[in-house]
Design goal:
The chain is α+β, with helices and mostly antiparallel strands and 125 residues long. 26% of the residues lie in helices and 45% in strands. The chain starts with a helix and ends with a strand.
């Protein structure tokens, strides 16, 4: 039981730090799972979103999706007086932009042990 508590703690720390780590640090966390059991991974990360089996290998995948909206910027206004008329023009500015965020982490399991991993997405670390 204490063995699983150790991995659960790592999972909680991983979730808390995902937004502020480097690729190297994130890959170090994934590397720490190589040689660990499939049961330990699931005890820490929870049930996977999907899995696939081929031969004696199993591929366990965890996925997350979301979005983030970046606020737009106000334009700059410039007024010009010509005679007794005032002309105002706007320059620059931008509309809000929504960015899709995702991360997919796949662990390869052979004979119950994690042997490899891979990830892709723009919101993994």
């Amino acid at each position: 039981m204490f063995k699983y508590l150790k991995y659960t703690g790592v999972g909680v720390v991983l979730i808390a730090l995902v937004g502020c780590m480097t690729a190297s640090e994130y890959e170090g966390i994934l590397n720490s799972w190589v040689g660990q059991s499939e049961q330990s991974l699931i005890a820490s990360w929870g049930p996977p979103n999907s899995f696939y089996e081929s031969g004696n290998s199993k591929y366990i995948t965890y996925s997350s999706q979301g979005s983030m909206t970046l606020p737009g910027t106000q334009p700059t206004y410039q007024s010009t007086v010509i005679g007794n008329q005032i002309y105002t023009s706007s320059y620059g500015g931008s509309s809000p932009t929504t960015i899709a965020l995702s991360c997919q982490q796949t662990f390869t399991v052979v004979n119950g042990l994690i042997t490899n991993w891979r990830y892709n997405g723009n919101n993994c670390y």
